[in-house]
Amino acid sequence: DARLHPTTELTFPAGFRWGTATAAYQIEGAAGEDGRTPSIWDTFSRTPGKVRNGDTGDIAADHYHRLREDVALMRDLGVTDYRFSVSWPRVQPTGRGPGEQKGLDFYRRLTDELREAGIRPVATLYHWDLPQELEDAGGWPHRDTAERFAEYAALVAGALGDRVAMWTTLNEPWCAAFLGYASGVHAPGRTDPVAALRAAHHLNLAHGRAVRVLRAALPASAEISLTLNLHAVRALSDSEADRDAARRIDALGNRVFLDPVFHGRLPADLVEDTAALTDWSFVRDGDLEVAATPIDSLGINYYSPTVVAAGTSASPSPWPGADRHVRFVPAPGPRTAMDWPVDAQGLYELLTRLRDELPEVPLVITENGAAYDDYADPSGDVHDPERVAYLHAHLAAVHRALADGVDVRGYFLWSLLDNFEWAYGYGKRFGIVHVDFASQRRTPKDSARWYADVIARGGLPQ
Ligand code: PNW
């Protein structure tokens, strides 16, 4: 309430959802417990040379054993919502057939605890941890994986359907398809551009099948969504060649998912750009209608913009067919510890573009945040001033989009805890709560106190 906080600069709408986000493999640990089998990320992280420092998610932030403490941290922050993901190999170890009750019970305990704390559970069904058995059977390039995903969705809806308010089918299918199967920097580490295009299609199909399953199984009040890491693409110049490079990356990074999911079609320019690689005959009659099954909102993960020009890129890259046409240009200005440019305007541009192109679709920022090195003072307080500045600038951009009529329903800060940052291991810290990975001690950083204040006042301080 702005009257109670006369120094509040930018007030967000009543009912705006303030959350934090995590993902199962990045925080849970307990990799071999209670019937859980390896996912592609267990296999990948245990393969020498794939993850920095040889780090794995075997223990991670040990959240599997510390869920009460972690929910208490969120209660102290005052968040309204918590976005977590369900580990497929924990609840359906072979990727098919019956569920593992002990795994499902973990998520029942978590959601019970959240609801007791007054926090809405937001569940993501797939945050990249495909059961290894399904990868061995062909993985996402193989059509059957989409059917397996629909069955898994039904299993989880049956176990958690009465207690989860919002459901996300997939987190960032772009990363799953193109980092996993084309550049190979994510699990399963394959470098086959055609496999990546097939994976992208089967992820769209899996999404649509899961939406149908969820819609049939869940109460009418359940919100069903999809989270994309859309690329805020800019051409370096106005030249036709640079604009064509931007068009290619927009097709491969954004429209490859947006067009099937919201319009039931493939981008014609993408099909043309990739004609030398594939005829797309793996897309069968009816698939695109399934992919376009209506959803209630779109989740957006945003970290940085992407600047491109005409040129060439080294392969293997995550951009099938674009390597001889596109050069990625380092954006000027400050960088995070990931070396990602800090550019809140990119988020504003993405939100207003989506309002123009999909005016009916409510938007949720399902991830935004930054990796920075933090430092503890002698009293033990952990300081992260750059993260506070990053978050402030990006929330101000969200506020600007709201003022321009963009329908943004909420903001989920990535991340609650320092965690396993995929190929970067534990070397990159995204948390607003510091985790000492030796003792598993949690220490809220300055950014956590700052975020709690933002939530309490319903907006940004001066
Ligand atoms: C997202 N890229 O990952 C994920 O959803 C999170 O699990 C992750 O921790 C977070 O962002 C920070 O990295 C991405 O290379 C990983 O374009 C890589 C890319 C994008 C998103």
From TrEMBL:
It comes from the Bacteria. Keywords: Carbohydrate metabolism, Cellulose degradation, Glycosidase, Hydrolase, Polysaccharide degradation. Its EC number is 3.2.1.21. InterPro entries: GH, GH_1_N_CS, Glyco_hydro_1, Glyco_hydro_1_AS, Glyco_hydro_1_beta-glucosidase. The keyword Transmembrane helix does not apply. PANTHER family: GLYCOSYL HYDROLASE, LP05116P. Belongs to the glycosyl hydrolase 1 family. This is Beta-glucosidase.
